[in-house]
Amino acid sequence: MLQFKSILDLIRTFSDEQSCINHLEQIRWNGNIISPFDKTSKVYKCKSNRYRCKNTGKYFNVRTNTIFEGTKISLQNWFIAIYLFTSHKRGISSYQLARDLNVTQKTAWFILQRLRYSTEHESFLRELNGIVQCDETFVGGKNKNRHRDKKVPMSQGRSFKDKTPVFGAIEKGGLLRARVIPNTSRKAIQPLVHEFVNKEAYLMTDEWKAYKGLERYYNHSFVDHGRKQYADGDTTTNAIENFWSHFKRSIIGVYYHASRKHLQQYVNESVFRFNTRNTNINVRFDMLLETTNEKRLTYKSLTNA
Hints:
Strand order of the largest sheet: 6-5-4-7-8
């Protein structure tokens, strides 16, 4: 495995475009080139880092059918962007990345959106075990902090007229999973609990009515926040609430705003950062490269309503 501890090490390691291509080919194919058009086809190596699929007659390279396809940005710049994206604890804004790469803010935003699109690593998709805390949060700012001309009527408490709810589940000492949800009803939340959490897990939640009935499937205990109860013996939701705090600081302090349409991508970014918190930058860098395959994302799909 390549080793680098700083952005200078990264630039020295990937000193030219060919070194980036070689590393990406190793990550993607590990010496066994597979056609993106027909996985059963024989592949011929051609000039200029291109390959030809025998069965379809189509040409391809290591960028084909990845987040890098169709961009004029060099892989060197992509690798620098990935390093910055994965090494900053609270993320990096498109304005800052634009300055670092000497590209437009629009280009930097597109780069970051593609990287966020690639943060769902398969190792994060397993069921959570052991002690698991579940909770929801609302993203979108507080009504009391808005100018009176911009206040949204009847948006107090759990109203989400002006906010977007997000559900999350965290395993003690382990992984986190989170998903943007349409509302905080039982119908929206309980299917995710069943998807995220193993039936043998010990489930901890707050008193919200959407969690009622889960005791039929889980060993379930809860704390009553409405009565200012934040721990009942070992039962608490402090860990997941701590993650929400860090996530919102990223939105407020770095990105300032995340639209409802794109919020899941920002959630995925924070989940990736949390789940790789004990991983060194080299492994985290390669983990993100591993997930760039078969992840085409066009600017049109991002900007269409």
